[in-house]
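User: Please predict structures.

Assistant: First:
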Amino acid sequence: MAGGNTTTGQKSQTLLLQNELNDWYSDNQLDMSWLNSPSRHQFRWRQLNGRWTSNERRISRPEQLVKSFRGKAPTDLYFGTAEWLEPIGLPRIREKHKPAPILLDHLVVFDIDQTPFCHRRLDKARAITAGLVDYLEKIEGLELLYISYSGSKGFHVVLKDLEREKFAIEDPRLREEEVKVARKELLSEVQSAGFPVDKTVTADTRRIIRLPGSIHGTTGWKCTIIDRQTLNKPLRRWINDIERHPKAVEMPYWAKAKKITKKVSKKSTPSKNTAQVIDRGPSVIMQASSHVSGTADRSAFITWLPKSWGENRRSRLFRELEDLGWAPGHHWLCDERELLIIPLAIPKEHMMRHLKSLGLNASLSQFEKLGHSWTGISPRRWENGEQESEFEYQGVIPFDGEQVKMPFSNPHLELVQRLGGIVEMDDPSKVDFAGDSTCTLRVANHK
């Protein structure tokens, strides 16, 4: 998950009430013993209302971090993988007008997930992680710091980079770029060796990952450091020893089969193999406008792909978007739905001219009526308390990497980062930006 001050109001799918979260962090110790200099790292957390916040003072001990919550313990707690001379108020990469931060160190981090949340898939993630740790042990210049169970669908492998030459580069911007290049090379090597690691994590110097000892707000399981001996054992022999909240969700052995439902006419009698759709009533969702606030007639591309589309139709859309110069695009999954955001400031007439040919008639209809579109950016929540799964960031849709011809939308770059996306630019000084920093949002009710 990327850095950035998230203020969309998007709520996480959490099991616990505020007093239960407070009690957990009062009774359970966070693990920062492996950090060389905690005070040089950034800490970020998500509150119960979905807002993100960062530490405003340097943190040296777990007690200081808990005190920073100010009585509102988080649903999810993270630390920055980079060590900075000044970690407070860290400027964004694209903020070239500000002095570059001094990168002192950067942990080598690999994230291995196997969805969905169940015993069989997690045991597969365990086996992959065990093989990865063995593989990394043979690479010179790396020292294993810890392995952790994330509290949900996978594991984190965190290592120390013993090769210090790149951290001695005098120019701070060049230093950070060289570190990223080295991480990308290592990531490519690991992927070529057949390990399915999260490709958005390792090379990102602004990355945050879950802090050991914290609780996972969606599952209620504790992010826990484990040793290699435990990792090499079948999951069934140790998973029940992992601490969790009394209200934690039960880990099923198999993934739950998805029930295929079909709408049945009132006049017809459903067959034994047909399940009737259940009406859960109205839902509430946070929506973002495509309009680039601060401009007269520019919009970003933001839409949910039609659920009826197959892989071929989806791939064709991505090719068409790249041919138009609408790239890079970021995408997320939420249950069986896919959200796509291209944070460019595209002229409205240019946008409308192509939406129909792209097969996105719902978005075109909104543009024709409103001059922009509203798109959901949070899991749907129903009156009965049910909620969709959290968004899972899938990364950047592959494109040829050529310089975009349109300015980036400042508010939608911020939105991408708020939703956990990773924004990378080779040289932000050579691209244009449009709009202010605030994306227009609203809460909408859907019947």
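Second:
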Amino acid sequence: MALDRISVECYAGARADERPRRIKIGGQEHLVARLLGESVEEAVSGKARTRRFKVLTDEGLVLEIVHASDGAWYLESYDPASA
């Protein structure tokens, strides 16, 4: 499945880019109301780390986004029926 590249603004706490705050998809900005889930996956080689987030936006959309080890953000799934 091809992932769509998106722009994400994060809250930066003790670590850089801890959790997403705003997500821009196709020119439209969505505010993150709540973090529903988070996971970290590491490659077998141990060099690549992927962080996945499931968020609820202020419009009621459920988005699953991926922060790749190269620093890029991608939209994995988008549930427009949840709005």
